[in-house]
Amino acid sequence: MAIRWTQEVEGGPRRVNHAAVSIRNRFIFSFGGYCTGEEYNQIVNIDVHVFDTVPCRWMKLPSAASCECDDSIPYMRYGHSASAIGDVVYIFGGRNDTHGACNTLYCFDTESVTWSKPKVKGRPPAARDGHSACVIESRIYIFGGYEEEGECFSQSIEYLDTQTLTWHRPRVTGKAAKWRDFHSATAVGTNMYIFGGRGDRMGRFHSGQEVYSNSVRVFDTVKNCWFKLKTTGDLPVGRRSHSAVSYGKHVYVFGGYNGLERKHHGEVYGLDTDTNVWTKFGHLWSLPLSTEKTLLLSYRNKADDIWRHESCVRRSSG
């Protein structure tokens, strides 16, 4: 498969640790995020930017009017997740420098452009940021991240049944992926592929001794079982804050940062989930930039299969 960038588009939001989803095979909705110089100790509503892939243009949605008693709109945050099921986007987690981490669920209707805070049942995951959210059928699986209350990394699996709006924590078997944050979780069929992220030599607790694994762990959502994938080929180095997307039987990984190497990465790797072989596609751009936090999204055009990428680049000062 030949992979290449088709167009560079200016005018998008400059930030990291935002969350984005593809809607109706045309629009990319981007929520919140962090940008150096902006204040995150003030309580303002989260912002929403939309990229229309037909004219290749960005627009910022007007801020929803709210009063202090209206808590249906999430406050500005970073390190959260966004998951799309139909035209509805589910926002979970993330943190703000005033309120800290959050575990409230919010919904954004992309048709009516309105927010809501649904009543959920069950026990939600602990407040966290840097987790992953993976949609498989009508469920949203939450894995990992950094839990604020326990001041620790997580390796738990929990899911939201969006049909009943109930949180579940399944009983699982197998050796779970290690504690981490800012990893990726990608669905291929009913399996969830965990790659990358930042861990710690102390395991669950943060000691500043960072670990970056390049192994792949898979969670079978039918059997509720973990297993480690034996991969070959051009293995990518461990990294955090990358992006990943599934396309057919492949998982594509782009960008990311390795703190031990102090290096930002700008290449694309593809994992064939049938053969478990990695393939490196190299740097796909001519710009002298690498990425720390990017979002790699795909959709299917009615005429052709086309890749669309949203990249929010944080320039290295070095």
Automatic annotation (TrEMBL):
InterPro entries: Kelch-typ_b-propeller, Kelch_1, KLHDC3-like. Keywords: Kelch repeat. This is Kelch domain-containing protein 3. It comes from Desmophyllum pertusum. One of its GO terms (cellular component) is cytoplasm. Pfam families: Kelch_KLHDC2_KLHL20_DRC7 (PF24681). One of its GO terms (molecular function) is chromatin binding.
